[in-house]
TrEMBL record:
<keyword id="KW-0732">Signal</keyword>
<dbReference type="InterPro" id="IPR013780">
    <property type="entry name" value="Glyco_hydro_b"/>
</dbReference>
<dbReference type="InterPro" id="IPR033403">
    <property type="entry name" value="DUF5110"/>
</dbReference>
<protein>
    <recommendedName>
        <fullName>DUF5110 domain-containing protein</fullName>
    </recommendedName>
</protein>
<feature type="signal peptide">
    <location>
        <begin position="1"/>
        <end position="24"/>
    </location>
</feature>
<feature type="domain" description="DUF5110">
    <location>
        <begin position="60"/>
        <end position="124"/>
    </location>
</feature>
<dbReference type="Pfam" id="PF17137">
    <property type="entry name" value="DUF5110"/>
</dbReference>
Length: 141
């Protein structure tokens, strides 16, 4: 589970937002995210052998001046050449602001790998008012 209650968000020029991952990550540099992009984060790992497909996944997004953002996540076994045989999952995410509602959805997927059942946490960094919303979904196939 991710702790984002200490998340700091400040808006610079309404095109970049910088943020901290909270009190447990003081040794990390300040992160900047340009408007229009979605990035994903997961739990800290020492090596791919520690990864579990059912680990929670977090998306952090910053909307652009048109209220849109997009990102791509590539998932595979982390070892071997199965991706050459299509054993991967490539997911394209899009986020859009309509009125006061932000919609995050999958726009396209590629690969033969099925989507694992897991929790998806979505954080939205917004310019202007510098708001953070935390939304959690349970994803099942």
């Amino acid at each position: 589970m991710f702790e984002f209650s200490n998340l700091r968000v400040l808006c610079m020029f309404c095109f970049f937002s910088f943020f901290s991952l909270g009190s447990g990550f003081q040794d990390l540099p300040t992160l900047y995210l340009q408007g229009r992009f979605i990035i994903h984060v997961g739990p800290p790992l020492q090596h791919v052998g520690e990864a579990n497909p059912t680990d929670d996944l977090s998306l952090i997004l910053a909307l652009d001046e048109n209220g849109k953002a997009e990102g791509v996540i590539f998932e595979d076994d982390g070892d071997g050449y199965g991706f050459n045989r299509g054993e991967y999952l490539l997911t394209y995410y899009v986020a859009e602001l309509h009125d006061s509602l932000i919609t995050v959805k999958t726009s396209k997927t590629e690969g033969l790998r099925s989507r694992p059942e897991r929790k998806l946490h979505v954080q939205m960094l917004l310019g202007g008012g510098a708001k953070v919303l935390l939304v959690t979904y349970c994803i099942t196939e």
